[in-house]
Amino acid sequence: MKLTRRDRTILFAPLVVLLGGWLVLPALLGLFATFTTYSPFTTAFRFSGFANYAGVIRDPQFGAAIRNIGVFTAVAVPLELAVGFGIAYVLRRPIKGRALWRVLLLAPWLVSPIAAGVMWHFLFGGATGILDFAFGWLGLPDVASPVGDVRLALPTAIAVEVWRVAPFVTFLLLPGLVSIPNERWEEATLAGASWFQQIRHVAIPELRTLLFTVAMLLIGLAFGTFDTILILTGGGPGTATLTPALFSYGRAFQTNDWPAGAASGWLIAAGVIAVGVVYLRLARERLDT
Amino acid sequence: MTRVILLLAALAAFLVPLVWTVLASFGLLPDNSTTPPSWKGSFTLGHFAEIGVAEPTFWQELATSTASAVCAAALTVGVAFLGAYGLARSTFRAGRTLTQGFLVLASLPAMAYIIPLSDVMRRVHLVDTFSGVVLAEAAVTAPLAVFVLHGALANLSPEWEEAALLDGAGLFRVLGRIVFPLVGPSVAATAIVLFVIDWNMLLVPLVLTSGEIKTIPVGMSDFFTFERELDWPTAAAALVVSLTPLGLLVAVFHRLLERFRLDLQNGRDIG
Question: For a Cys-Cys bond, which of A98, A217, B135, B209 suits B213, CB 3.0-4.6 Å?
Fold first, then answer.
């Protein structure tokens, strides 16, 4: 149908104002400011080229943060996808009480990252924690909280994030799985396909675009990891769980090194945009065929 | 049978930590000093009363969280609905890439632009205001809402709208009488998901306020940042209180939530 120019203005103006004023414009102003010595705490500023970025990239703390988030993303995102997909696949066919299963299995996603940090902080703790309780029953000695251990802190943070996010993946994938036409499954069954072959040759091809979409969201979420870590480990011990977002926040709001905070924030954006460009390519190929 | 066992295993992994927290909030705690560990404490509602003692502003925070999440979700859905409809009924060539671009924007972590945003908000005196938090939360979640609602709207055949236009109906009449009733469930599902995201959001209210306006996640993070004493049962009670509204919302509207879909961009019918 034909939209008039007036219709278009009415439809797009609120979105342009909201996204422009509160997202795009601040982001671009911020980008400009990262090439200067600008800081809201000082009045004079001058052009400084790439000095802020060079400073951030040379900062060993930021280097550690990049390594951590690389491991975090590479492990957490595939796990979230696999666990989330697995549960959705089991729930695909009608099962007694499916609605109840669905609601109960979504519960961890309703816990805010901050609340999850508080909760697991205590559950990993000694006196009333779940870990020592389980170890005690197994006849094993008490363990120190894994979030205080340099080697275990990052895997633990990943586990907590997978616990929280995998249910959301199930929630996003299930409607797509359910709407795959029955004939596709029947053909596969007649051809004698095992459950693994059914996933490989029916579910994944049918859900390709949706899986890309969910993966894009999860990668963005992982790159920006902040709230979960803030309470659970605060980035420690040392820099074992420091993330670029924690680094950025700390520089801008705690040590008042505004240019470093803003520049590292833009480096996070650059990472997500790079993944986004790949996603847009894949989505276009998929739509053209 | 295998499926039930698999589901029970997933349920245990997902829910045991939450059940542990609920038990603690009612005063039922494990005793790890005995061998094997045992349980101690008796059922009490006292820890819920202690929340207000440990964090005097907690109930105020609960009200702020609710009000800001409701306003932000409503604003986002309204603005995104109009924009998504415009996109779905426009014929420019870059439309599809633009829609997928909204998904990339939805994936962009708030940390990427919150630092300059906080500076801009301070300059326009929107720091520490309710509307400042609502507008920023609305902007953060708008791209996801546009993407989801565009999917629902693109699947709608435009015939009805065209017929109404020929009868002389204006844009708002078409939207209100024809389009909205058809995609109402998708709009409602989107609003509920956005409410959950807004309710749980930390970074936006943390950076755009300095104590005047406080949501529950900000209150919780304050507690631990300043390392005040907080009993586990009291913390558990606060967690349970902050989780209950979301749990009820999802339990009541679970059928509706099936309409929150990310995979309708290719024109597959709503199942």
Answer: B209
Question: What pLDDT digit, counting tens, does each position of A30-84 carry?
Answer: 898 899 888 887 778 888 889 899 999 999 999 999 999 999 999 999 999 999 9
The three-state secondary structure class of B30 is: strand
Place of tokens 């095992």: A194
Cα–Cα distance, B108 to A245 (Å, whole number): 12
- How many Å apart are CA A143 and CA A48, to the nearest integer? 50
**B65-221+245-257 maps to which CATH number?**
1.10.3720.10
What is the distance between the alpha carbons of residues B142 and B148, in angstroms, rounded to a whole number? 10
Q: Look-up: residue for tokens 């202690």? A: B50
Phi/psi zone of residue A129: left (φ > 0), alpha (ψ -120 to 50 degrees), beta? beta
- Which residues does residue B39 pair with via DSSP β-bridges, in sequence order? B30
- pTM (predicted TM-score): 0.94
Matching residue, tokens 């109404």: B164
CB atoms within 10 A of CB B20: 21
Report the C-alpha gap between A20 and A70 in whole angstroms. Answer: 31
B119 to A130: CB separation less than 8 angstroms, yes or no:
no
Domain A55-288 top-level CATH class: mainly alpha
Domain residues of chain B, as ranges?
Answer: 2-44, 65-221+245-257
Interface predicted TM-score (ipTM): 0.93
State pLDDT tens for residues B138-173: 999 999 999 999 999 988 888 888 888 888 888 888
Mean pLDDT of A1-27: 90
CA distance A19 to B142: 8
Distance (Å, whole) CA B266 – CA B271? 14
- The DSSP code sequence of B15-43 is HHHHHHHHHHHTT-EEETTSSS-EEE---
Q: Residue B156 has what DSSP assignment?
A: S
Interface test with B, best of A11, A36, A179, A214 (most B CBs within 10 A): A11
User: Which residues from chain A sit within 8 angstroms of residue B41, using beta carbons?
Assistant: none
Q: Which of B250, B150, B253 is nearest to B200 (CA)?
A: B250
Question: Which residue is associated with the tokens 């979409």?
Answer: A213
A115: nearest CB among B35, B220, B266: B220
CA torsion angle B157 B159 B164 B166 (round to 10): 150
Q: Inform me whether the C-beta atom of residue A62 falls under 8 Å from chain B C-beta atoms.
A: no
Rounded Cα distance, B180 and B176, in Å: 5
Taking the C-alpha atoms of residue B246 and residue B200, their distance in angstroms, rounded to an integer, is 10
From chain A, the residues in CB contact with B259 under 8 A are 175
At A280, list the tokens. Answer: 């847009």
Q: What is the DSSP string of A92-133?
A: SS--TTHHHHHHHHHHHHHS-HHHHHHHHHHHHSSTT-HHHH
Indicate the DSSP class of residue B40: E
